[in-house]
Amino acid sequence: MENPIIQLDGLTKIYGKVKAVDNLHLRINKGEIFGLLGPNGAGKTTTILMMLGLSDPDAGQATVCGINATRNPIAVKRKVGYMPDNAGFYDNLTALENLLYIGRLNGIAEQDIKARAQETMQLVGLSDALHKKTSAYSRGMKQRLGLADLLIRDPEVMILDEPTLGIDPSGIRDFLELIHHLSRQQGLTVLLSSHHLHHVQQICDRVGIFVEGRLLMQGDIDTLSGELFGKESFEVAVTVREEIPREGRLIAALQGMNSVVGVQVNGQTMDITCSTDITPELVRFFVQQGLNITGVQRKAYGLDEIYQRFFENNPKKVSA
Ligand SMILES: Nc1ncnc2c1ncn2[C@@H]1O[C@H](COP(=O)(O)OP(=O)(O)OP(=O)(O)O)[C@@H](O)[C@H]1O
């Protein structure tokens, strides 16, 4: 059900001759995790700054939590936590001291601050490192502390600019799971920008592909995949013990099956492209043919393929 907490209507920002953001319309629902994807210079940061009321649009408007961000930036800042890609802390202070400082700056009552800071550190999995100076924190720990910095202010929306940048691969998954968990547990709306498609894919409910200031596609992964791959949405690789002839009765029968779009033979593996997921029917077919299946793999198109296909279809956008 539609329940937009972020509404961008015709949002436009022009720098000289560059339309950094060009007539952007976007709705993000309460509790949703939305991924803003796009190459460098696409206009992601400019959009975020306008949503926070830190940059004035040349046309259109950004409404966040029902507040016009341009007219009332202070009210928006109370509802929205923003983590830039270079969030910094006072290195000579401990993590707890940093959070207490942020809590005070944000007007949290003195008698509540310590308990709130400790509770928030627990939420982000840093309870054991409360008294460590942030100079000794790894990049992954700093990003968790960055989340704590937002959460202590009890936001309704979190905007995270390239949150996984610089975190080692094993830490990225945990960090994204944490964002997902927090969003679901607290009903938090999350907008995150990223270049890392397969990371984003793990947790985003919907994504938008943003190029040269324009949102060119938006939707969940299945919808985007359907739009770009159409009839070739699924690929099933079936491996059998026997060598498969490249032509003949078997291939013709497969090609005649409903929703099969293409068949390719590679030794003992057949790659079958189809418009619907007919994996069970394919398995049954192979067994009926007396073949010994040793492996079945269904490949659904992910964001990497979606992105690649998008730019194949729109070569002009590659230069962006
Ligand atoms: N203050 C500014 N003055 C002039 N041009 C700017 C300014 N800020 C951004 N731009 C231009 O606007 C366009 C969009 O930039 P923006 O930083 O929003 O992109 P981005 O998608 O966030 O990219 P990145 O991932 O590199 O940060 C770029 O062409 C950039 O050069």
Automatic annotation (TrEMBL):
PROSITE patterns per record: ABC_TRANSPORTER_2
Gene3D superfamilies: P-loop containing nucleotide triphosphate hydrolases
Keyword annotations of the record: ATP-binding, Nucleotide-binding, Transport
GO molecular function, a single term: ATP hydrolysis activity
Origin: domain of life: Bacteria
Domain ABC transporter: 6-237
Family to which the UniProt record says this protein belongs: Belongs to the ABC transporter superfamily.
Protein name (record): ABC-2 type transport system ATP-binding protein
